[in-house]
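Structure first, sequence second, as always.
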């Protein structure tokens, strides 16, 4: 009898021993850093032939050994990678979207190490705005509570969510859990190249991609570093405008004050597109946008520290599009991202340039159509007296003799904006997951300023989409010295664990 009474006690002791030996999520996340550095060491510029394939093979192997079915979906560019995990008894499907490619790199601007040689370090901004970097040879005891970062291209944008998904999945399985929904993860290998062929691919593979909810893994959390959900993202269109001057660059002494300068004409043309407060003056550009009181109240409730943002970026007065940062993001933008005419610096020459070129991007909101806005810009250029010739050729002698002002203009909409009501089924489920994980309500953003190619999924698959940001706002994405703050690496794993284990 004594022996029988001891059996439950012995079993309980055994169970407690097993539980205590079980890795915590923090331990598992810490151990994953070695694997993550291997992942980051693979170059991933989609514009360079062959760079993405090793990354896709790596993901196939890592997800495959965890029981995911791996499938390449044919695409006119680089094939998409679909990872699926069916769950017995599940009634709904959640499609996660991530991308594996990164922006091009300028190796001369990376301070601590080359972009594909991951290194731990710190980043500090001095009172004069100077950014200083320092290597960290040994991680502190609790890196999740420090300011240590991991520097490498794509460390935040956007290999981190893919790696952290694996970490959270492993912990979930170790805890004897599974989602109560079927899991699909689509990996886009050309997001940073604007995913030009994605709409066609989504249409072609709509059955394989079918889902009830879509979660976009990307973007930074709110500047307060609190858990964040975003209901949408802006779309994007690009444009290129060239204003022509003399056939060849001319001596500014011989022909200055006589031969028209294309750089000046282009500057005048661009200056007329916006007023002194930064609002687009082109008629009809903001048509269809009407922020009601409920929306304005939601936007005003976002805890943006505007003085701190101004100080960090380095300006005093913002453009007057909207009453605050969040309102500004609800309108389409017209941005000059590059301007070229002649030479500058040590190469400067006393010439009248033969042409002047500007590249622009137009960030789109749900109410704005990219092709319509490009048409409005084109109409504005013509209204200023310019004759527009097709792109890709110089003006003919006949055109130069006939027209006072010559220009070429071309543009293309890469993808539209999308927006989902965060109080709908997808948003409320994710709000619940984050609240249960972090014991606080997440910051809710109506839209993010950046663009992700999600509109084809939303429209073709008829599925609501919500952005789940994971990384730090000051991650230098698209720039030299890209990084992920280890605090965000650890909290990102926690976020995904919460989402994977929250009942849908």
């Amino acid at each position: 009898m004594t022996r029988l009474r001891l059996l439950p006690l012995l079993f309980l002791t055994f169970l407690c021993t097993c539980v205590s030996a079980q890795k915590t999520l923090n331990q598992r996340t810490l151990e994953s850093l070695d694997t993550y550095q291997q992942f980051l060491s693979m170059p991933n510029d989609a514009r360079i032939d062959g760079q993405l394939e090793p990354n896709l093979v790596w993901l196939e192997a890592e997800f495959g050994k965890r029981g995911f079915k791996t499938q390449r979906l044919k695409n006119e560019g680089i094939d998409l990678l679909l990872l699926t995990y069916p769950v017995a008894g599940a009634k709904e499907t959640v499609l996660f979207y991530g991308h594996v490619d990164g922006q091009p790199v300028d190796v001369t601007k990376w301070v601590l190490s080359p972009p594909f040689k991951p290194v731990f370090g710190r980043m500090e901004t001095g009172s004069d705005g100077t950014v200083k970097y320092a290597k960290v040879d040994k991680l502190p005891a609790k890196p999740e509570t420090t300011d240590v970062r991991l520097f490498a291209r794509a460390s935040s944008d956007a290999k981190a969510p893919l790696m952290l998904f694996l970490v959270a999945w492993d912990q979930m399985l170790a805890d004897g859990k599974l989602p109560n929904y079927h899991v699909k993860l689509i990996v886009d290998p050309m997001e940073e190249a604007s995913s030009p062929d994605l709409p066609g691919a989504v249409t072609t593979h709509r059955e394989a991609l079918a889902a009830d909810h879509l979660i976009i893994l990307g973007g930074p959390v709110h500047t307060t570093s609190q858990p964040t959900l975003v209901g949408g993202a802006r779309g994007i269109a690009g444009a290129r405008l060239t204003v022509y001057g003399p056939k060849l660059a001319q001596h500014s002494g011989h022909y200055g004050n006589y031969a028209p300068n294309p750089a000046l004409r282009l500057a005048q043309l661009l200056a007329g597109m916006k007023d002194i407060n930064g609002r687009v003056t082109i008629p009809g550009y903001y048509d269809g946008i009407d922020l009601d009181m409920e929306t304005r109240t939601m936007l005003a409730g976002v805890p943006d520290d505007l003085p701190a943002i101004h100080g960090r970026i380095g300006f005093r007065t913002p453009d007057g599009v909207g009453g605050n940062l969040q309102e500004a993001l609800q309108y389409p933008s017209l941005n000059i991202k590059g301007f070229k005419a002649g030479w500058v610096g040590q190469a400067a020459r006393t010439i009248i340039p033969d042409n002047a070129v500007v590249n622009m991007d137009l960030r789109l909101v749900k109410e704005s159509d990219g092709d319509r806005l490009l048409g409005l810009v084109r109409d504005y250029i013509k209204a200023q007296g310019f004759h527009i010739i097709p792109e890709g050729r110089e003006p003919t002698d006949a055109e130069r003799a006939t027209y006072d002002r010559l220009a070429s203009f071309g543009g293309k909409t890469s993808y539209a904006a999308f927006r989902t009501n965060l109080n709908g089924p997808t948003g409320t489920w994710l709000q619940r997951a984050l609240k249960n994980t972090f014991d606080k309500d997440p910051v809710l953003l109506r839209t993010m300023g950046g663009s992700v190619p999600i509109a084809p999924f939303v429209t073709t698959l008829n599925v609501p989409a919500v952005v789940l940001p994971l990384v730090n706002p000051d991650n230098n994405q698209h720039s030299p010295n890209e990084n992920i703050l280890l605090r965000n690496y650890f909290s990102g794993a926690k976020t995904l664990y919460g989402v994977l284990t929250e009942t849908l």
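Margin note: The two ends are 47 Å apart (CA to CA).
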